[in-house]
Amino acid sequence: MTLRQRRTRSTTFQKGCEADRLAPARALSLRCPVLPAGRPGTGSARTVVHNDAHAPSRQVSNVTHELSYGLLLHPATPAVDNHGCRHWNQDIEDETNWLSGALLVPEAAAIAIARGPATLADAASHYGVSQAMIRWRLNSTGATKRVQRARQARARSRT
User: pTM here?
Assistant: First the structure.
């Protein structure tokens, strides 16, 4: 049996494992002096596998999420164990999700979106992300509530 190998965050997958279900997939080789080594002897190289059949907005989100692991200096670890079960550290995932969202739609942008007049679709198109990402950033930054409270405060001060 031949092995079909793909690496993601320094993980090698055998045929039939999770990475093979990403087909058609493309690998991006990333080198950055500030990223920790993916594996001994690889320097700052990391490989990110992404599915180019996904919508471009999803691809941007996925790649930014993977880059966030390196920017946060999270160690490269295998995605699955010897039994095919996923390794999962919720704290690392939460940090990585937060950073990738902040890189794609910064807090100031979320506040500007909440102020309007752009629709979620307009904002998503402008930032090259999904409407779900815009909604998540509006919620996670509290932008919508902050803008509503500021408008209410201004309305009260006028009376």
Answer: 0.69
User: Which backbone phi and psi does 11 adopt, to 5 degrees?
Assistant: -110, 135
Give the pLDDT means over successive 10-residue stretches in the chain (159 positions). 33 35 47 49 62 87 89 79 83 94 96 95 95 96 96 90
Structure tokens at 158: 């006028």
Which tokens belong to 126? 């402008």
Peptide bond into 117 cis (omega under 30): yes
**Inter-axis angle of helices 107-115 and 131-140, nearest 10:** 100
Query: From residue 149, how far is each of 115, 137, 146, 157 by CA, in Å?
Result: 11, 18, 5, 12
Q: Which one, of 68, 66, 28, 60, lies nearest residue 132 by Cα?
A: 60
In whole angstroms, what is the distance from residue 64 CA to residue 119 CA? 24
CA separation for the pair 79, 151 (Å, rounded): 46
Closest CA to 61 of 129, 142, 138: 129
Do the beta carbons of residue 72 and residue 95 sit within 8 Å?
yes
